[in-house]
Amino acid sequence: MKGLKNGMSSVSRRNITQRLVVFASHLPSSSSSSSDSTSMASEKQAALATAPSDADAPTIFDKIINKEIPSNVVYEDDKVFAFRDINPQAPTHILIIPKVKDGLTGLSKAEKRHFEILGRLLYTAKLIAKQEGLDDGFRVVINDGPKGCQSVYHIHVHLLGGRQMNWPPG
Ligand code: AMP
Fold first, then answer.
1. Ligand 1 centre distance from Cα of residue 87 (Å)
2. Into how many domains does the chain fold?
3. Catalytic positions, please?
4. Residues with a CB atom less than 6 Å from ligand 1
5. Cys-Cys with 134: which of 114, 115, 129, 153 at CB 3.0–4.6 Å?
6. Residue 170 is assigned to a structural domain of this protein
């Protein structure tokens, strides 16, 4: 019968293959390259070397928003700015930040007044994921504090996609 081989349709085979890929991605990885682990180590070192800063202390992201230093901008509106990460951890790696920090150095500093901007950051992640063609899925990450591997104290959402993500994260 057309589409059947060994009693299994090509659609079933594809479904099983996709499930195996997702299942494998949840297993501990033994195949990460040395450049991956070097990059992860340097990210961690950067995070541990960066002390959580004062609420109003400027960061490199202020210079990016003000276009004092260049960035690869993918989205901008009156409240939100998004640009490609300089050290991408996936084929698509975009940072989404509020234009006005308003004390939000990190998620742990969120107050009720930040409800709207926090929602906008996530909603913008969804818009950009669509814009980037990440139709099969993507990941959003907010690192917080030294143990969360945060290195820039201006809240930002990482949007990652374009490859199969693994679980658990490092
Ligand atoms: P986090 O470690 O969660 O605080 O993320 C900070 C991110 O900012 C890292 O992924 C860096 O690669 C990224 N980053 C730092 N400087 C720049 C820059 N000038 N342009 C783009 N991304 C940057």
1. 7
2. 1
3. 156
4. 47, 60, 71, 85-87, 95, 143, 149-152
5. 129
6. no
